[in-house]
Amino acid sequence: MATSPALLFPSPSSASSPPSSARVEAVVLFNVCDSYVRRPDQADRVIGTLLGSLLPDGTVHVRNSYVVPHSESADQVAIDIDYHHNMYASHQKVNSKEVIVGWFSTGFGVSGGSTLIHEFYSREVQNPIHLTVDTGFTRGEASIKAYISSNLSLGDRHLAAQFQEIPLDLRMIEAEKAGFEILKSTMVEKLPNDLEGMESSMEKLYILIDEIYKYVDDVVEGRVAPDNRIGRFISDSVASMPKLSPAAFDKLFNDKIQDNLTLVYLSSITRTQISIAEKLNTAAQVL
Hints:
The protein is of the alpha/beta class and 287 residues long. The chain has helices at 26-37, 81-94, 112-124, 174-185, 194-220, 228-240, 246-286; strands at residues 7-9, 21-25, 47-54, 59-68, 70-72, 77-79, 99-106, 129-133, 144-154, 157-166, 168-171. It starts with 6 loop residues before the first strand and ends with a helix.
């Protein structure tokens, strides 16, 4: 992965022997997106702490994160340091191996205020990384970048902080990758409901089955050389399916749908009762 040109901002940040790359788990990205959705109305972006470890090869492995309340203007930044330290102490009680490795922010690239925040995290840990997640889809997708910072000096005088992009490795299992692709490339007014999600999944499954049929036909007709590995995979997949008659499958499917609809109905009643109770409690306090 090619790195971008350095970004310069006036700030006395210090770093030596910085990490060579970053590895980020999918849960960190989902935490960042969730914190952005829940941000205060007046906030343009959110920031937070990255937790993980430094691997022997110089790679920073980011495994967890938490948001840190802050406010910023054109020339100053205020961070809730007590909240940051309390959250870190709580995380240490659960997993002492996850230490501070840097910080994240939402938005595209590095801004002037980022240097002040990076200076704070440079006092918390040596050589912190800065992870940016473009939740505003500036270029049509959720761009994710990792940066390190070093000093530009003239003699003993600090002139600027140099932010340099480093290679970023996103580690995801198949289920996480499917969710990330939705966040990465799609801007929607609302999340799909269960029925819409099932419909989308069935359409993708139909496309995959159609591709398998085409591959098998090509092998049988001699248009494609057979691959024993693929053949065993298809055989195992077919053998794993339960042998059900169409009537039995329809009954099983309809029973499951009825159970889901019952849960949705009960959840709706519960929300209605809670809402009514809150209104009655508010009216009683007013009276």
